[in-house]
Amino acid sequence: MRDRGMIDSRYAYATRLIILRRNVDVIASQAPIRPTGWMVVVESPFFVSLGSYILGVALVLVIMPILSIALVLYFGRHLRRSVVQPLAVLNQRVNQLTRGDFSHWMSFATISTSSVEIAELATNFQRMQMAIRSRQVDLQASEARFREMAELLPEMLFELDNERKITYANR
Fold first, then answer.
1. Contact call for residues 7 and 30 (beta carbons, < 8 A)
2. 111: pLDDT confidence band, cut at 50, 70 and 90?
3. pLDDT given for residue 70 in this prediction
4. Distance from C-alpha of 142 to C-alpha of 132, rounded to nearest angstrom
5. Rounded to whole angstroms, how far apart are CA atoms 73 and 10?
6. Other Cβ atoms closer than 10 A to 125
7. In the chain, fewer beta carbons within 10 Å around the N or the C end?
8. Residue 73 Cα distances to 19, 68, 69, 76, angstroms
C-alpha cells in the first residue's frame, strides 16, 4: 500500500488519501484508542465519498447556465412587452405627427403597459396629439376665412415667395 496522506500526530483524528494495491483511491480516517493503543481506521472509496459533491458541482455547472438563459429570455420578453413595444408605438405616432399625418388617429389607451412612466408618457402624447389636431383645425378655419376675405377684396392681392414667384393671387 502506497500512502499519499499525511498524519498529524497533534490531532486525535486525521484523514489521508491512500492508494490500495488494486489502484483504488480511498479516503481513510483514523482515530487512536489510547488505553489499548489501537488505531481505528475507516476507509471509503474516494469517488464514492466525493460522488455527491461531484454530482452537485456537475449539476450546478449544467443547471446554472440553463437557468440563467431561461431568466434572461423571460425578462427579455417581459421587457419587450412592457417597455419596448409601447415605446415603438409612441415612436411611430410621433413620426406620423412630425410628417403632419393626422389621418391615422391612434388611441394611446390601447397601449398595454405595466410601467407607470410609459403610461404617463402615452397620456402626454395623447394630449399633445389632441392639441396639435385642435390647432390644425383652427389654422385651417383661419386660413379659409383669410382666403374668403382676400377673394372678396376689390383690389388685387398677391403673395410672392423668396424667388419672386407668385404663390397666391386673389384674381
1. yes
2. low
3. 96
4. 15
5. 55
6. 18
7. N
8. 48, 9, 6, 5
Rounded distance between C-alpha atoms, residue 147 and residue 155, angstroms: 14
For residues 25 and 17, the answer to whether their CB atoms sit within 8 Å is yes
Q: In this structure, which amino acid lies at residue 22?
A: R
The pLDDT value recorded for residue 20 is 55
Phi, psi at 27, each rounded to 5°: -105, 125
Tell me the backbone φ, ψ of residue 43, rounded to 5 degrees. -115, 145
Question: What are the cell numbers at 117?
Answer: 412612466
| pLDDT exceeds cutoff 50 at 98 | yes
The residue with cell 489502484 is: 23
Q: What is the pTM of this model?
A: 0.45
**Angle, CA 34 vertex, CA 28 and CA 37 arms, to 5°:** 75
In three-state secondary structure terms, 147 is helix
Rg (C-alpha) for the chain, rounded Å, is 42
Handedness of CA 102, 106, 107, 111 (dihedral sign): negative
- Rounded to the nearest 10°, the torsion over CA 109, 115, 118, 120 is 70
Query: Measured between alpha carbons, how far is 107 from 92 in angstroms, rounded to an integer?
Result: 13
Query: What is the per-residue pLDDT across 2-57, written as a single tens digit (0 to 9) for each?
Result: 444 444 444 445 555 555 556 777 777 888 888 888 888 888 887 777 788 888 89
